[in-house]
């Protein structure tokens, strides 16, 4: 039996098909009028459970599993894993003995989150029974969907009318839950939010709960929530969080390719989490892009550097000439578009019931829905992007994927518009090449390497425009350095002898084009593309050592380094199915 059939929709953690962003959106809707003076009484409790995983009663857990009807043998297996925990205490750096646990769930055990969800379901059922008592009153807007609480793991929000009687019922339910499960509210970390109540009622509620009055914005599931529309000042924590991940030392230690990986894997995940729920202010999105752009090119507070390629170009997919960095604005719209898709396809969820109970009260389509004047700002923003996405749907079906499931990536690409594909993209970004080589090839193809000739065109002061790798006193251009320079030609002579090929050096783009049309198997083409990338990278590196460190790099040294890196990569991929198709060529490279 799926856990989603056992657990109420109020819980969204660790249950397939449910989303934490629905909790955030519903909670944000409920906060809307908390800043008004004249409003109906309402109460919201943000409750932190004290050491949640460590305090679960084993006896109660076993009763819950029996109550849900799990097989006896299965329950024995589960309890065997739960009740055999042993602990040791480290005193002055030395472990002392082991002692048995008496309660709690194992941290890191894959089953623990699901068991905790089942424990919290008991609270949902207590609150459901409580809501049917005659002296309990629902929080405004909650009666139609019978909403009393939202749970995400150990994050608990409880809603009721701002009356002493309703709060008493909630506290009785919490006391009953605590006595049964061992889970208690942390008084110091829990808070209560009130609106539309008089001072006497406020005092009685605070005395009954023991919680302090909360301050806006609330930090809920990592996002700041308040009754007002998100403004730039409320989103500064997002900018600060991204900035904290970037230090001067961190930036200096990484290559361009390393920084690109940090942007895609670390920085992107931070702002995409926020952007999956709300349409963020454009000023914040521009600031995020600015930080990522500066980090990529090695800028910091002490040193400014030139952005070698435009951010718009960088945000294109790799197959279309970019670096596949996600532009914050379009990705934000595409992410929030998933909420629109859920409404269109009528995907069952608590949030959808909420939307139909509060906003779309008729059978009207979301496309024809008129936004009410008194609604949350996020609902206005969501309806504001409908015009961008309506063309992606046909009779309620999302048309950008084969089976109609929403894809943020496909939507993002649709928002970017048509861009022609790059012919040699698969050779530029082949896994045979090292990441730093691939990035350098990409820069060279864009014509953005900072040669002396390009510095002159950009009005950057230059002491000597001549190529430092040869004695011909010719201006250093991309064409000269990589196609005509005697030093480079000597390197390529050695490479051609090593590979037993006759690749002509006439520009990296044309070289890759010629490799692409060769009657070679694909794996051999990728090997040759990797060799070209390594040669270009080490040529540019040798040029920089000569110009900035005064060190002469011999061609033999460069060729040895190219061979070492290519062979190292080959040794990792040599056992693939594709490698067998050019086994003789690979064997020759490995032996020479």
UniProtKB/TrEMBL annotation:
This is Reverse transcriptase domain-containing protein. Residues 1-225 form the Reverse transcriptase domain. It comes from Solanum verrucosum. CDD domains: RT_nLTR_like. It comes from the Eukaryota. InterPro entries: DNA/RNA_pol_sf (IPR043502), RT_dom (IPR000477), RVT-Znf (IPR026960).
